Every structure is written in C-alpha cells, then in structure tokens.
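Researcher: I'd like a candidate sequence for this fold, 849 residues long. If you have to choose between options at a position, lean toward the conservative one.
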C-alpha cells in the first residue's frame, strides 16, 4: 500500500528522507560533543593562522634589503669562530641601546685601547697600573654620500688578538663595505695599527671622511718640525707622581678619501706611543730626543738620532716598513704571536645550568687579562724556573667576583687586578713575571686546581666536581714537555680521565702518572691518551699525580695517608641533566611537562563532568550508534508512506495501542491519573529491577526494560502524554462501540504485517524518533556551530594557501640572496687583492707634487 505513489511524489519524499543523514551526524556526534569539537577545530585553525610567526620569525633589525645579505655573508666567517668561542660578536645597537657584556678592547700589556666610541688609549705606568694617555688614536670612517641605512658590528677576536669593525652602507641598492681592523701589536709593544679596507661595488665614486679626535692632545707639546714630514710628534711630561712622560707619534692622512666605482681601497694607519721616566736635570731638547729614541726602541725600530731632521727621515722609513702590506707581514706577525699563546688553554662542554661558566666567558676573561701582560722578548714559552706551588687552592671555575661582564674599562682593570692578586697569593707570582705565556699557564692551573710541587704535578679536583667534560691542553711541566688532561662523562654518568704528553723536542723527558692514593703501579704517559682510573679517597686527595721520576711515585705511596680508596661513583642523573638541559627534569624540556600537566588536568575535569552529568541526569541511556539503521528506516518509511509527520505519529500511536492490550500506564504500573512524581518514582524502581546490567543475559528483562524506557519517555512529557491519552480514549471508544468484527481482524493483520518495523514493538524506532524530536530545539544552536566550523575550515584552507605563498616568496628571496652573494664575491677584490707598499705609502702620505 505504501508504494503506489506517483513517481514525482516518491522522489520528493525520498529526497526528504535523504536529509536525515546530515542531521543524524550532527545530532548523534557533533551536538553531544560540539564544545570539544568546536574548540579543537578553532585551536587548530588558529595554529595554522599563526604558523607564520612560529616557523618564520620576524626579520631582525639587521635585515635591511640587499645590504643585509652582504652583511650577513661577511659575518658568516666570524660566526664560525664565535661558535667555537674564539670570537665574540657585538652589534652596534647593543653598545648604544643596552649594556653590552663585552667591550671592544685590545692591548699587548704595554698599551691598551678602548675601540668603542670613546676610543681612549691607556699605557702601563711605573707599576702595574694603567694610565690614561689623554688622547684617542681611533680614526673614525664615515660615508659622506647619501645612503638609505647602515649596519654595524664589532668582532672581538680572542685568538687573533684584534677587533674588527664592520660597516655596511646601502648606497643605490648596493652595499659599500668598510672593514676596520684594530690591534695593538703583540711583538711591537708601542705600535697601534688600524687597517681600513673600503669596497665600493656601486657605479659612482663614494667619499669617506676620516677623522681623529686630536682635541684631546691639547696637553701634549706638538713638535714644530713635523711639517717637513708626514708624521706628527707629541710629548707630555708628568703624571700622578710627576715622574712619567709620554711620546706619541701619529701618521697624517687625508681627511677625505675618494673610492672609485668598482674599486677597493686599503689604508694602514699606525700610531706610536712610548713611556719614559722624567729626570729632574734633563733639559727639554734632550727629553725630546730620548723620548723619541725610546719610542723607536720599544717598537723594535731603533735608530741613531743625530738631529730631529734625521729622525723624521728615519721615521718615514719606519712607517714604510710598518705599512708594507706584502702578505700582511705585520698583521701575520701579530696574529701568530697571539695564536701561540692559545696553544695552552681549556676546552669545556657547554652547560645550561644557571650561572654556569662556558667557553665564551672563560676565553673572553683570559683575553682581557692577556691584554694587560707583555710578551717575552724572545717570544718563548719556556720558563726560567719550575712554577713550584702554583696553584695552591680550589678551582676558580666557580661563580665568583672573578667572573663579570667586561663592559667598561674600569671593570676590565678591576677584574685584571683581582686575578693578579688571586694568582700571586696562591703561589703563581713567578709565572706572572714570565709575561703573557706565564699568565696563560697560571690561569690554566687555577681553572683545574692543578698544583706544581718540587717533583710532580697534581690534579686536586674531586670526583663529585667532575660532572662536565674538560680538556686541559699543554700544561707546562718541564722544558719541552707538556701534559694534556681530559675528563669525560660517559653514558653511565661516570667521570673518565685520560692523560697524555706533548714533547716539543726529542729532549723532552718521560712522564709517569698514578691515580688517587698512588696504590697502583705507575703508568707511563705517551703522546696517545692513556686511561687513568678516577678514584675517591677518604680523606680527599688529588686524583692524579704526574712526575718525571718513577721512584718519586714510590715515595708518594709512603707520603699519602688515606683510610679508604674506591672507584668514584656515578653522578646523579639530575646533576647531569642540569648541565645538559638547564633543569633537573631530564631530557624533556619544561614545555613538555607543562603540556602533560595541562592534559592531565583537562582529562580529570572531563571525567568529573561525565560523573556529574550521570548523577544529575534522569538515568536515560545514551543513544547508541546502533540506532542509526533503525532510525533511518523509520524516517524513510515515514517519508514514503505519509504526507506529513503528524500522520506518521498518529499511525505509530494507533499501532502502539492496537498491538498490545497493555498500555504505557500498565507497563509502569501506575494509574492514568498518576502525577509526574509518581511516574518518575515508578520508572526509577522498575529501571533498577529490569536494567540489563543487573540481568545480564536475560532477554526478557532487556525487552521489558526497553518498554519501561519507552513508556517513561512518553508519559514524562506533558505534550506527548496528552496526545497519548487522547489516542487511548479514542481507541477504547472504538473497541467498546465496534459492530464489525472484521475491524479486529484488520487491526490484527495490520499490526502483524508491520511487526518488524512498528516503533511500539521495536523500541529502537520509538526511542530514535523521540530522541531526535528532543534534539530539534538545539538545531538552531547546531546550525550556528556548523557555520562557525565552516568559517574556521575555510580560514584553515586559506592559511595553507598563505603558507604556500610565503614558502614560495622565501624561496625566491633565497635565490636572489644567493645571486647577490655570488656577485659580491665576484666584485669584492679585497678578498684576494694585496696592495704594494708604494701604493699604501701614497695613500697615507699623499701624492708628491
């Protein structure tokens, strides 16, 4: 009877039935979990929208078009040295805007220079104090042409003992580079060098202004004969005690420098300064002669001076020798001297622990200290005597006032004094008298608590302090013999020690070592690393002894008195984790643990919400996904067989009433005039009795429980109960006044024929319909959520498109940057070009007319 419809009506009703599917998905899943789904989708969309800021950070202040590409390309050479703590990069804005950690500074123990904007020069007095000379030898280079922007940075190169100032000017979308190298020559104590290199890749001539602050020389007496040469001589008599004089010899230079298009220009500007003691009976002319002669001698450029005219002739030759740039001989001489100082030193693993000392602080502090100590005259690393009883205290690798920010000259001088006092008081005074090489050894001994005695070298560290990797290289022992000590923390968190020997000549002695307590036989050291057990003694003793006499180890056994000797235990995990990760939680970052804690809190809140809802609900079971098929079949049947949903409801209720003589009131065991409270109480009691969880496996109880739920779902709502009562009254009336017996047969056959889908006989149909009707008031809210979710979805797709465009832009920018770098390498001739001495003399002194 249901399929005799017109085809157009059939397809119309079928299309109405097909609308069930999207409504089913939203009502069954999204509506019940819409808060969680909505929040998840919104958070995911926001993450994609903000992904640009996570993976493509905003460009730094240094990124300024084409010039920044060249700037960063030049900086790559210095960043490689900074990564191994051989250099420090200080950007110009750090000096002007914030307090820097490192001050651009250079020195050789005789004179020191603040290379920053102050540019002051200091000279060692009669004692270890450094005096302000009163003038600024720095030559500032500024571009006179119009430029869009300028990038600037200082590179303090510890290993080479110099400061490099890099300036990049954006002129006509091209980058004009000015590289200035400052250093006080290590082997020529009175010489301060400024090497300036200008590269002009533009199509126009650039003009640079060179300026020195000579107004600070007002207290100096200027020679009146310098006009006949290309140098200026200044003298100053007097100091705090009136016994010190200074002579300053500066080179003259043109105030404006013109650099042609596609050219590279280089300048070498030396300055000479000498200190001398003032004699009371010394006349002025003799003072000038002695002062100038002293300046030349200290600079290893001694001349016999018969007159001031001869002096200026020879000083020109001295300048010619100093400014000769063949293979940068004077720069190489300085660099090699500094590199030789760093042959001895300390390498240490990086620590993320609070207040942990790392390679940058250690190497930087050593550099600033070495700037205040002169090199030996013969540039030798051999000492006149064995450094006995140095260093006799605990390790200095601990947070203390010995380690501070080197951001001002006063702080640098203070730290230098503190280290000097500390080393002298702990037996290293003789090493400090040996100059810069002795200072390196004294610092190295203090770092590791290494102590020289009359016959041996002992490593007085304790196993519990060896929780980082250390490498002490080239510790001086005797002439031509050096010791290397390496400490490593293995995978078991145990400290492992290795020792080896370096011999600079065949005359180097053999060395022997023993561990803590010296109970084991002596171990002969070689050039390859030898494993030395790390042991702990009670009371504490050094963990390593090194000597050049085998019999001395036998004597050590009798002189070392310990109660217990055992292998050092492994370090606790949290100690190693503190250095490796900056916290004691282990290998995972704090963000992981924070996220895990948040997830646990959210999970428990969700669990509490479920328990609360279950307790406060009317004990209706949650709709199951197994109702889908039954519900779909019911809706399709309604759409195909009835014109309206009201007709379908009427058909369902009539079938319910005619199928079984037991009505809904009988199922709950209440009368027709029972109150809502009585109905609810009856439902609760019957639910407890017939619940499937209580009667597992009993199909009869399960069916009865379904009928109880159906009855309560109808009778608990006033509207559905009123409709049911009216239908029940009509049905009772029809049975009482029936005159045709065929009606009963018709009803019976009708009910029996549709038993498989009748909602009153199949509880799934009935519950699915009523649960859907209950969800209809929420359709408007669901539609709003769906619209928002759609909006977020389209925003997500849009963000993906933006990401693709951004990636493409970044790729094109990278290609352009590589082209700029290639062009820069091709145009910048100063990477390979070396100018002749005559060309440099011509730039410094000008062309002869």
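Model: Candidate sequence:
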């Amino acid at each position: 009877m249901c399929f005799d419809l017109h085809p157009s009506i059939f397809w119309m009703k079928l299309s109405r039935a097909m609308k069930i599917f999207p409504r089913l998905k939203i009502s069954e899943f999204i509506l019940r979990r819409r808060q969680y789904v909505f929040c998840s989708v919104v958070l995911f969309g926001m993450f994609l929208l903000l992904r640009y800021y996570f993976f493509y950070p905003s460009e730094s202040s240094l990124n300024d078009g084409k010039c920044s590409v060249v700037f960063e390309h030049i900086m790559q050479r210095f960043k490689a040295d900074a990564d191994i703590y051989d250099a420090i990069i200080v950007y110009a804005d750090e000096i002007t805007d914030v307090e820097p950690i490192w001050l651009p500074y250079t020195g050789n123990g005789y004179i020191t220079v603040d290379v920053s904007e102050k540019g002051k020069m200091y000279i060692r007095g009669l004692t270890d104090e450094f005096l302000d000379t009163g003038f600024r030898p720095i030559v500032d280079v500024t571009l006179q042409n119009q430029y869009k922007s300028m990038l600037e940075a200082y590179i303090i190169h510890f290993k080479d003992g110099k400061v490099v100032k890099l300036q990049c000017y954006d002129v006509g979308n091209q980058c004009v580079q000015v590289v200035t190298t400052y250093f006080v020559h290590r082997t020529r104590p009175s010489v301060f060098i400024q090497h300036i290199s200008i590269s002009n890749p533009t199509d126009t001539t650039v003009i640079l202004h060179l300026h020195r602050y000579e107004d600070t020389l007002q207290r100096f007496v200027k020679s009146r004969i310098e006009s006949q040469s290309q140098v200026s001589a200044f003298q100053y008599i007097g100091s705090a005690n009136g016994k010190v004089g200074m002579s300053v010899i500066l080179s003259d230079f043109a105030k404006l420098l013109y650099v042609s298009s596609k050219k590279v220009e280089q300048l070498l500007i030396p300055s000479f300064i000498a200190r001398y003691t003032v004699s009371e009976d010394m006349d002025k002319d003799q003072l000038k002669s002695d002062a100038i002669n002293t300046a030349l001698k200290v600079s290893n450029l001694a001349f016999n001076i018969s007159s001031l005219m001869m002096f200026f002739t020879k000083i020109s030759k001295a300048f010619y020798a100093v400014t000769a740039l063949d293979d940068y001989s004077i720069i190489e001489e300085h660099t090699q001297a500094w590199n030789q100082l760093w042959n001895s030193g300390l390498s240490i693993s990086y620590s993320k622990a609070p207040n942990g000392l790392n390679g940058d602080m250690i190497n930087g502090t050593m550099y600033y200290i070495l700037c205040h100590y002169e090199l030996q005259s013969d540039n030798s690393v051999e000492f006149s005597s064995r450094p006995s009883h140095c260093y006799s205290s605990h390790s200095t690798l601990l947070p203390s006032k010995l380690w501070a920010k080197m951001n001002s000259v006063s702080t640098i001088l203070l730290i230098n004094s503190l280290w000097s006092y500390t080393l002298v008081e702990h037996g290293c005074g003789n090493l400090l008298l040996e100059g810069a090489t002795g200072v390196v050894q004294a610092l190295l001994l203090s770092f590791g608590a290494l102590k020289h005695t009359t016959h041996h070298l002992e490593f007085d560290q304790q196993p519990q302090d060896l929780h980082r990797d250390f490498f002490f290289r080239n510790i001086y022992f005797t002439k031509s013999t050096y010791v290397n000590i390496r400490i490593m923390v293995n995978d078991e968190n145990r400290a492992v020690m290795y020792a080896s020997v370096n011999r600079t000549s065949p005359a180097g002695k053999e060395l022997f070592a023993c561990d803590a307590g010296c109970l084991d036989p002596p171990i002969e050291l070689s050039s390859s690393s030898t494993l030395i057990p790390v042991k702990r003694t009670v009371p504490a003793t050094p963990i390593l002894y090194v000597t050049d006499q085998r019999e001395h180890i036998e004597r050590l056994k009798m002189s070392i008195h310990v109660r217990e000797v055992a292998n050092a235990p492994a370090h606790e995990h949290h100690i190693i984790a503190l250095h490796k990760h900056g916290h004691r939680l282990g290998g995972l970052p704090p963000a992981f643990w924070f996220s895990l804690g948040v997830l646990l809190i959210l999970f428990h809140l969700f669990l509490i919400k479920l328990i609360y809802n279950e307790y406060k609900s009317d004990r209706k079971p949650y709709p199951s996904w197994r109702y889908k098929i039954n519900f779909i079949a019911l809706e399709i049947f309604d759409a195909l067989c009835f014109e309206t949903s009201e007709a379908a409801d009427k058909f369902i209720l009539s079938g319910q009433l005619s199928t079984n003589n037991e009505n809904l009131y009988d199922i709950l065991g209440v009368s027709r005039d029972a109150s809502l409270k009585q109905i609810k109480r009856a439902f609760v009691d019957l639910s407890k009795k017939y619940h499937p969880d209580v009667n597992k496996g009993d199909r009869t109880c399960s069916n009865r429980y379904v009928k109880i739920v159906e009855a309560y779902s109808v009778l608990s709502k006033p509207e559905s109960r009123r409709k049911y009562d009216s239908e029940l009254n009509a049905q009772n009336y029809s049975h009482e006044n029936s005159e045709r017996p065929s009606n009963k047969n018709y009803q019976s056959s009708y009910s029996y024929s549709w038993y498989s889908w009748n909602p009153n006989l199949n509880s799934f149909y009935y519950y699915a319909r009523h649960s859907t009707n209950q969800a209809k008031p929420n359709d408007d809210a669901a539609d709003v959520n769906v619209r928002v979710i759609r909006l977020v979805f389209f925003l997500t797709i849009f963000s993906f498109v933006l990401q693709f465009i951004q990636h493409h832009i970044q790729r094109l920018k990278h290609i352009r940057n590589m082209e700029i770098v290639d062009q820069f390498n091709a145009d910048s001739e100063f990477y390979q070009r070396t100018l002749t001495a005559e060309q440099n003399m011509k730039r410094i002194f000008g062309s002869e007319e």
